[in-house]
Amino acid sequence: MDQIEAGTVHTLTVARKIETGYVLTNGKREILMHVNEAEEDLDVNQEVDVFLYLDKKGQLIATTVIPEILKGTYGWAKVAESVKQLGVFVDIGIQKEILVSKDDLPLLEGVWPQPGDELFVTLITDKKGRLLAKPVTEDIIEQERDLAKKTLRNEPISGRVYRSTKVGSFIITEEGFRGFIHHTERKDEPRLGQWVEGRIIEVKDDGTLNVSMRPLKQESISDDAEVILSYLASRGGVMPFTDKSSPDDIRDTFNLSKAAFKRALGRLLKAGKIEQREGQTFLKREGEAKK
């Protein structure tokens, strides 16, 4: 790249040494490199490959640390800090952490990445020349992803969330597959950048995956039954929900589908832990429950 700007790599020449480091040049412009940005001692007239970025004062400076993530290249960057109303800062390997703007994050701050999460990003510059990290787009994922085989159905899978929407979460798996977790296939919405585990419920014709974070039905019934029992206990042992309740009310209250709710109710009824009457469900006292 010929243009001298943040986020680019250049081969520059050491013009002179100064007390705080080095002055580098391309023959037209001089760039400062602090001594702690050089991985070894340099000599005058020595050529050196450097990465450019703006320091806190807005001055363009150089470092011999060349990050894998550059303008036009994508990579995983670990989240270092989340700042309310601003965005998150990621570590790309240089001394300065790079901002991912809130404009490129979910509207709900509760699913923003937290320190330790990782984002798949590239570098861009804003109108003022400041370096920003921008999360991957679907176009890039489509170019880079691998195709999953139909035989993977029901297999366990893990990956990292690269996109979060109201309808569900999109992940890139360890194997490089693109997966989608519909909001009905998770109990809690994972954060952007979070590592998640699930199982493959469908391999689509285009080689992408539909993934569920819910346990298998037998395990799910037990978990869902515990949710209902906890809810009853918190409401004095009675709730205005039965197997006749509306799917929307069930979803809003328990984050369960009506089918899952009915299966769990059926298990609890069979075990004698609850009873239904007059349009309500009651928690039986310990002595009333079947042994």
From TrEMBL:
SUPFAM superfamilies: Nucleic acid-binding proteins (SSF50249)
Domain S1 motif: 154-214
One annotated GO molecular function: nucleic acid binding
PANTHER family: CONSERVED VIRULENCE FACTOR B (PTHR37296)
Family: Belongs to the CvfB family.
Protein known as: S1 motif domain-containing protein
Naturally occurring in which organism (per UniProt): Evansella caseinilytica
